[in-house]
Specification:
alpha+beta; Aminopeptidase; Alpha-Beta Plaits; 31% helix; hydrolase; metalloprotease; Peptidase_M14
Length: 837
C-alpha cells in the first residue's frame, strides 16, 4: 500500500473557515496528521507554538513523568474569559461547596470540559487527535466557535502518558516502510515487551486515578480539583477488529454510589456522538463491553465527583494501516473518529450547560446531606506501630479533597486505641462523602457478577490499617490543612555497644538497605527480647553492633540518626547485651544478614504489570538496586553475583534447559528464589520447588444444557477480577516479621489455588475458612480458596524457593502486604530448611 497524504480537510468539519495566522500541524511538524505517529516532543512543541500564536490558549506544565517529560494542560476559551479566568475558576469551585453554591447564578456560568487523550501510550489516535482539537479551537472562525468559547472553558490534556506515547511512536515510526504493509504479521504491529501501553514503571495509568501513586496522576488530579470540570472525555483504543465505542456502558455494572443523574446525562450525550459518527459513516456501539464500576479509571472517577466521565474506545490500527475484518483500518481514520467525538462532546456540553452545572451543584449538596444521615459520624483509621502507612493513606485522601482531622486525644474503639500521632478522623458530612464511602466500603453483594476491572479496593484493608466508625466527632481536632510526614528519632544517645530498631515501620527495609549500602554489619532477631530498661523488641528487630564495623562510632551514630529520621523509625541505643527477658544480644538466634543482591527476570511471558510493580517498589520507593535480566540473557549470565532472584507472575519458556539447570544449581548453592502468581506453576512443572494446586475446573454443579448466548458471561463470572480476602500469618516466621496481627487482608485477582503442605511450617500465610472481606468471587472459586495456602516455602539444597500466590504489590497502593514481599528478599536467606516443603 503506497503512502498517501491525508489532507487536513479529511478531518475538519465542512463550511468552517480557519485563521491563516494560526499554524496548521503540518506547518510545524512537517507532515500531515496521520502520516506519521506524533512523538511526544513534537506534540509539546506544537502545543507551545499554539499557546504563543493564539489568545484563546494558555498552557501550563502540571507535572513531570518518571522520565522527566512534561505533562501539559491547555486552557482554551474566549479572550474575554481568559481575562477573568481566575474568577471563573473560583466560581466553579464554589459550585461544589454546599455552603455557598445555592447563591450562585449559573445562567451565564461557563461549563468546564476536560479532554484527556491517550492515557495508554500505544493507543495513539487520541493524542494525535488532540492536535486537531487544539488547532480547530484556536483557528476556527465564525459565530458558532465564538459562542462555544464564550460558554465553555476547555481543558486539553494532549498526552496523559508521555513516556508510553514516546515508546510507542518510536517503535511504529521506526518499523514503517515507505510503502505501508497492512499484513497483521508485520513487525510494526508487534511491539517488543513491555509495549507502549504503560508508563516508565510499566503501570497502567488509567487505573491510578484513585491510588495516585505516580507523578502523572498526582499532577493531573490537582488540576482536576482546581477546575472541577463538568465533563471529562477519556480517549482510548481497543482491538483492531472492533469499531468504535462510547458510553454509557453496561447499565448493571454502574457503581451504586454514582448518582443516577450522571448516567442520565451520559445517555443524553451519547446521542450527540451517534449523530456525529452517522454523519461521517463510522460504525459504533454503546452499552456493551465496558462499565463504570472501578473509580480508579479516568471515565469513572468524575462520576463520583459531581461530573460525568465519557469513555471512547476506537479500533486500533496499531500502526499506520492494518488489515481487519472491516477492511484496512488506517491511522487517519482512527484519528478522525476521536476528533469527531471531541467535537460532539463540546456540542453536547454547550447545549446541556445549565443541566450539567446544576447536576454538579446538586451532587455536592446531596452528598453532605447523605453523609449527615449515614449510620456513623466519621471513620477513624490508624495503626499502633507504624504511623507511616496511615500517613500515606491520609496523603492520598487529602489529594482527593477529603477533609481530615487528627484525634484531640486517645480514642479507644474495641481493642484498638487510636492516638493523635498515629490516627486520622474522616467526618462523613462533607462534600466528598460518596468518594469516602467508595474508598472505605466492604461491598460483597453486586447486581452483576462481571467486572471490567477489580470489584473491591477498600483502602484501610489495602494499607492493613485498623479502622472503625465513630458515633460523633467531638474528639476530632481542627481540620488538617497539610498532612505532615512522620519522622524518626534515635533514642538514648550515642553509645559504644549496640543499636536496634524494630521491623514494624513501613520503611524499616529501606533503613536496613541503607545501612547495608554503607557496609554496616547487621543482625536480625529471630526471637523477641526486652532490654534492662524495659524496651521490648519484636521478631525481626534489627541489631547493629558498634564494634567490628568499618565506620568509627561517631560516624555510625550520625548515619543512624539520619536514617532514623528519613525513614520514620525509632532506633534505640543499647548499652548492654544482657536483656531482662528473652535472648541476649550475643545469642546465636541473632543471625547475620547479607545485603540482597537482586535480579528480576523479565520479558517473554512475564506480566509487565506485575514486574513493573516490583521494579517501582524496589527502585522508586525503597531505593534498592535491581537488575532487570531478560530470559534469554539468563541462559548465559553468571548468576553468582546475585543472592536473590525474582520471578514475577508469568511464564518463562524462553529459559533454556541449561538455564533451568543453572537456576536449580544456583538455588542449591544457597540462593533465594522468590516467585509470584502463575510463575509458581512454571516452577512446579520444572521441579524448582514443591507446589501443588487445587483444581479450578467445573462449576461445582451438575452439568446441564446451557444457553449459548450466556457462554461469555458464565465464563466471566468464574474470573476473580480483584477482591480482598482474609489470611492468617505466622508472626514468628521470617516472612511475617514486622506484622503485629496475624490477620492480614490480601488482594487476589487470579484463580490459582495452592494446596497446603504436609509440612506444618511451610505455609506461613494461609487463607482462613471464611476469608471474603470485599469484592466478588463465585461459589466454586470460593470453595477452592477457603483454607488454602497463600505462601509456600520450598527447600532445594541450602537455598529456598518462596512462592507467593497473590500479588502483594498490587498497583503500588497495597501497602499492607508490601512487607511480605520485602521480607522474602531480606530474610529468605535465614529461613530454616526444616520449615520448607
Amino acid at each position: 500500500m503506497s503512502l498517501a497524504q491525508t489532507s487536513l480537510s479529511y478531518y475538519l468539519p465542512a463550511h468552517v473557515t480557519y485563521n491563516e495566522s494560526i499554524p496548521t500541524p503540518k506547518e510545524l511538524l512537517g507532515y500531515e496528521i496521520g502520516d506519521w505517529h506524533v512523538s511526544h516532543d513534537q506534540l509539546v512543541s506544537y502545543m507551545k507554538a499554539m499557546d504563543a500564536a493564539s489568545d484563546r490558549i494558555t498552557l501550563v506544565e502540571y507535572a513531570r513523568t518518571h522520565e522527566n517529560r512534561p505533562l501539559l494542560l491547555l486552557t482554551i476559551s474566549s479572550p474575554d474569559n481568559h481575562r477573568q479566568i481566575e474568577g471563573i475558576k473560583q466560581k466553579h469551585q464554589q459550585l461544589t461547596d454546599p455552603n455557598v453554591s445555592g447563591k450562585l447564578d449559573i445562567s451565564n456560568m461557563p461549563a468546564v470540559i476536560w479532554m484527556g487523550y491517550s492515557v495508554h501510550g500505544n493507543e495513539p489516535s487520541g493524542s494525535n487527535a488532540s492536535l486537531l482539537a487544539v488547532y480547530h479551537l484556536a483557528a476556527a472562525q465564525g459565530p458558532e466557535i465564538e459562542r462555544l468559547l464564550r460558554e465553555t472553558v476547555i481543558l486539553v490534556d494532549p498526552s496523559i502518558n508521555p513516556d508510553g506515547l514516546h515508546r510507542f511512536s518510536t517503535w511504529v515510526n521506526s518499523n514503517r516502510g515507505k510503502n505501508l504493509v497492512t499484513d497483521p504479521n508485520n513487525r510494526e504491529f508487534s511491539e517488543t515487551w513491555p509495549g507502549g501501553r504503560t508508563n516508565h514503571y510499566w503501570f497502567d495509568l488509567n487505573r491510578d486515578w484513585l491510588p495516585l501513586q505516580h507523578p502523572e496522576s498526582r499532577g493531573r488530579l490537582a488540576k482536576f480539583h482546581e477546575w472541577k470540570p463538568n465533563l471529562l472525555t477519556d480517549h482510548h483504543e481497543m482491538g483492531t477488529n472492533s469499531t468504535f465505542f462510547f458510553q454509557p456502558g453496561i447499565p448493571s455494572r454502574n457503581h451504586p454510589l454514582s448518582p443516577a443523574k450522571a448516567f442520565e446525562i451520559t445517555k443524553k450525550i451519547s446521542t450527540y456522538h451517534a449523530k456525529a459518527l452517522d454523519k461521517i459513516g463510522s460504525f459504533y456501539y454503546t452499552e456493551e463491553s465496558y462499565d463504570d464500576f472501578y473509580y480508579g479509571k479516568g471515565s469513572t472517577y468524575p462520576d463520583v465527583n459531581g461530573a460525568v466521565g465519557i469513555l471512547f474506545e476506537q479500533a486500533s490500527s496499531r500502526g499506520h494501516a492494518q488489515e481487519s475484518v472491516n477492511g484496512v483500518l488506517t491511522f487517519p481514520f482512527t484519528i478522525r473518529n476521536q476528533f469527531t467525538t471531541t467535537l460532539s462532546s463540546l456540542e453536547a456540553v454547550q447545549n446541556m450547560r445549565q443541566e450539567m452545572l446544576e447536576h454538579q451543584r446538586t451532587f455536592y449538596q446531596q452528598s453532605v446531606k447523605e453523609g449527615a444521615k449515614a449510620g456513623a459520624a466519621a471513620y477513624i483509621f490508624g495503626t499502633e506501630k507504624d504511623a507511616m502507612r496511615a500517613y500515606h493513606l491520609a496523603e492520598i485522601m487529602q489529594q482527593h479533597q477529603i477533609q481530615l482531622h487528627r484525634p484531640k486525644q486517645n480514642i479507644t474503639v474495641g481493642n484498638m486505641t487510636y492516638t493523635p500521632e498515629n490516627a486520622y478522623i474522616v467526618p462523613l458530612a462533607q462534600p466528598q462523602y460518596r468518594l469516602i464511602e467508595a474508598m472505605f466500603e466492604k461491598r460483597t453483594k453486586f447486581q452483576d457478577s462481571l467486572f471490567y476491572d477489580i470489584s473491591a479496593w477498600t483502602f484501610p484493608l489495602a494499607f492493613n490499617l485498623d479502622c472503625a466508625t465513630l458515633k460523633n466527632t467531638k474528639d476530632a481536632g481542627p481540620r488538617l490543612d497539610q498532612i505532615v510526614k512522620p519522622t524518626g528519632t534515635l533514642e538514648g544517645g550515642q553509645n559504644h555497644y549496640a543499636y536496634a530498631f524494630e521491623w514494624h515501620g513501613y520503611y524499616a527495609p529501606r533503613a536496613l538497605y541503607q545501612l547495608q549500602e554503607l557496609g554496616i554489619q547487621t543482625r536480625v532477631a529471630t526471637n523477641r527480647f526486652s532490654t534492662v530498661n524495659g524496651q521490648s523488641f519484636d521478631y525481626g528487630s534489627i541489631l547493629i553492633p558498634v564494634t567490628g564495623q568499618s565506620l568509627p562510632p561517631d560516624s555510625l551514630y550520625t548515619h543512624l540518626q539520619n536514617i532514623a529520621q528519613s525513614n520514620g523509625i525509632t532506633i534505640y541505643s543499647l548499652s548492654t547485651g544482657l536483656n531482662s527477658e528473652g535472648v541476649s544480644l550475643g545469642s546465636p538466634t541473632m543471625l547475620n544478614l547479607k545485603q540482597p543482591k537482586v535480579v528480576m527476570v523479565v520479558e517473554g511471558g512475564v506480566s509487565y504489570l506485575d514486574a513493573g510493580e516490583i521494579w517501582h517498589l524496589l527502585d522508586d520507593r525503597f531505593g534498592m538496586q535491581v537488575t532487570l535480566l531478560t530470559q534469554d540473557r539468563l541462559n548465559r549470565a553468571n548468576l553468582s553475583r546475585y543472592n536473590t532472584i525474582i520471578l514475577p507472575d508469568g511464564s518463562f519458556n524462553d529459559i533454556s534447559t541449561s538455564g533451568r539447570e543453572k537456576l536449580r544449581s544456583w538455588v542449591q548453592g544457597g540462593g533465594t528464589l522468590v516467585a509470584t502468581g502463575n510463575s509458581l506453576r512454571w516452577l512446579a512443572s520444572n521441579n524448582l520447588g514443591e507446589f501443588n494446586f487445587r483444581t479450578t475446573t467445573g462449576t461445582g454443579a451438575k452439568t446441564v444444557q446451557g444457553l449459548y448466548a450466556d457462554l461469555e458471561n458464565a465464563r466471566g463470572a468464574q474470573q476473580i477480577g480483584g477482591a480482598i480476602f482474609d489470611t492468617r500469618l505466622d508472626l514468628s516466621h521470617p516472612l511475617g516479621y514486622g506484622y503485629t496481627k496475624s490477620q492480614l487482608p490480601i488482594f487476589r485477582n487470579s484463580t490459582l489455588f495452592l494446596e497446603r503442605s504436609q509440612n506444618p511450617y511451610a505455609n506461613p500465610l494461609m487463607y482462613t475458612a471464611d476469608p471474603l472481606q470485599a469484592g466478588y468471587i463465585s461459589n466454586h472459586n470460593y470453595a477452592n480458596l477457603k483454607s488454602s495456602a497463600a505462601i509456600g516455602v520450598s527447600a532445594i539444597g541450602s537455598g529456598r524457593v518462596i512462592g507467593i500466590v497473590d500479588n502483594p504489590n498490587f498497583r503500588a497502593f497495597w501497602y499492607g502486604t508490601n512487607k511480605l514481599f520485602l521480607n522474602s528478599l531480606f530474610f529468605g536467606q535465614i529461613i530454616s530448611g526444616a520449615s520448607a516443603r
